[in-house]
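seq as requested:
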Amino acid sequence: MKRASRTIDDPFTGQRLSFVEVAGETDGQSLRAEVRLEPGGFVPRHLHIRQDERIEILAGSIRYRTRGVDRIMGTGDRAAVPRRRIHRVSNAGSGEAVFVLDVRPARRIEQTMRSMFAVGRLLRPLARFRR
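struct tokens:
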């Protein structure tokens, strides 16, 4: 059986995600990933019904938006995103932004991400219009 790649990318949103730990490795407790956003890249507006999310900025700067409020975050900054809270993340700088994503419990978030990124790859021809 072919093993799924640990890295997925979405050229439409400018995201590249590398799984560090997945549900199968943490007894379903968590998923950890390193997310890279190219300049202009973003994580679309979304929420998690049954999961909490934490992010920690490793490089660059991001704009984190929730409840109608933008927060610019830089290296070393952290944020907790409680379940059922709509949020969006985007690259706020001119270079690549990198952050660690931690989702608890993992549930089926890996499969959801893989599906969403597959759709993004199908939209690749439209990527030049996303800005």
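The longest helix spans residues 109-122.
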